[in-house]
Amino acid sequence: MIDFDIQNELSSNLSPGEKLLWTGRPRKGVLLRSNDIFLIPFSLFWMGFVIFWETSAARSGAPTFFLLFGIPFVVMGLYLTLGRFFIDARKRANTIYGITDQRILIKTSGRGSNIKSLNIKTLSDITFSQKADGSGTILLGPVDPRYARLQGMAWPGVQQTPCLELIDDVKTVFDKIIELQRQN
Hints:
The protein is α+β, with helices and mostly antiparallel strands. It is about 40% helix and about 20% strand. It is built from four helices and seven strands; from the N terminus they run αβααββββββα. It is elongated, with a radius of gyration of 21 Å. The mean pLDDT is about 90.
């Protein structure tokens, strides 16, 4: 299926003679992921401790250094508790996908535009996960086991495996990629 808005946005990135075969975008909005079972309690504990630290330092008349020392931890706590959900939603809202007869395109816009181009013939370790409603994610390469639990999260400094994340009818898209890999 081709969305004509996405087709127009990706057309300038196509090589001469290259055909766009599928377009899509990730599911929009704020959502919970499986790793939130761990991260939500951790972030609440983190924020509780940071608030305790900052209020204790302020009430006891501690040197300004102690108050300033806690500020990066407050910022990190705010990111863990709330910010990561909104950053993730904004990133997905500004992402589009395209599959051509030669490659897979992942375009993310925002402050600028970033295009990831993956040659279909050279991709290895393509896996997908599917939910009961038929939606899912296709991972386009190996996942670093150190960061497997953080996959899909907007986490500073973590190199993500390229993926077609939270797309509808994931099995059909996966089959299309495999079919294109088998063609000469």
